[in-house]
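Chapter review: from sequence to fold.
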Amino acid sequence: MDNLTPVIGLEVHIELSTKSKMFCGCSPDHFSKRPNTQTCPICLGLPGALPFANKEAVFSVIKFGSAFNCKINNFSKFDRKHYFYPDLPKGYQISQYDLPLCGKGMYHLAGGMIGIRRIHLEEDTAKLVHAEGKTLIDFNRSGVALMELVTEPDFHDVQSVTSFLKDVQLTARYLGISNADMEKGSMRLEANISLSSTSGMDGLPDYKVELKNINSFRFLSKAINSEIERQEKLILKGEKVTQETRGYNESTGRTFSQRTKEEAKDYRYFPEPDIPPIRLVRSKILDLRSMIPELPEQKRKRLEETYQLPKDYIEILISDVEKADYFERAVKEIKTFNPKTIADLIINKKFDIVKIAKLGKVKYATNSETERAVRVVIEENKKAYQDYKNGKGQILSFLIGQVQKKLKGGGNIKLINELLTVKINGR
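The token string follows.
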């Protein structure tokens, strides 16, 4: 039996941080809100209610698609996607099918290129709430602007999937179009998984299994690995893998069948008659592209080339735009420390290093004056000092600041740090 290689494609849904829902004026802020308080006749699909497209959402998708090198279509339209679930009040979802906002694109990932099949815009569904043996429906989420990115089946391992999805999340945050918070459901993903023989299989496998409702990167790794193992066992036994949609039970560590997987034809797509098509002029596309800031991959390369930082430091810094910007500001203002030391102080010691540096731009106090100030601060801040001894490293910046106050800003930060360390170690 030939070795089997995983073939994985992704569908990523991201709720956009627009001021209103996709096709009405309701607030999209549904998280932790009282059920069914953020609704209107349009997002409830009541007869006679007419939807209207959210321009902000359209522009957000164009910027996101540009970041992934997608072809931005000058002509686009909305479609009705029919399926009958209780979380879909109209009996169909307004989505996009054959003419999405963003067509084919490409994203560079370490180890290869990932093809982007499409990025389109649609409305979110309602939320099912299971409690006390009943299933209730909260329509607050219904109609929220939802962006979907669909990749080609270019992934062959969980590590690549995770790396790509983290960049997707960061890109949405860098662009300011979504917080992409997986815990709050602002970013949700499905993985389409099949196994291919490494020798001789002509094209892709003739089936795929969709894993639904993945809500964390840790969950993702476990679910995909479990499904790969399940399929491998079936194929090695000579059995056929059924094309279906499955979920993952974390307590058992196994995937489970939910339903047979639909094909596009099952959704009976047809053009949405109540919303006019979208026509984009080239100048508007160029304007939106000009608004795109430095993206995660660009920042990653620049930090590595400019500051020669360790890769783990770079990943921590780029994971937070504000932290990365703060690091670069600190490097410009503090010439006495090298970039790696500054990054270490920010990441591991959690110092407000810029503030401390400003305090330190004075004539230093004497060693004896500094030692005296350290003793007084410890005596006056016993609880804070005890917290520091117990492992709360962020307290150190507070203690240093208190010593600097005693010295009227004339303390040597390095000396203060050393004296506090000696005290904590009992030397």
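Two observations follow directly from the output. Residues 143 and 338 are 50 Å apart (CA to CA). Residues 4-290 form one domain.
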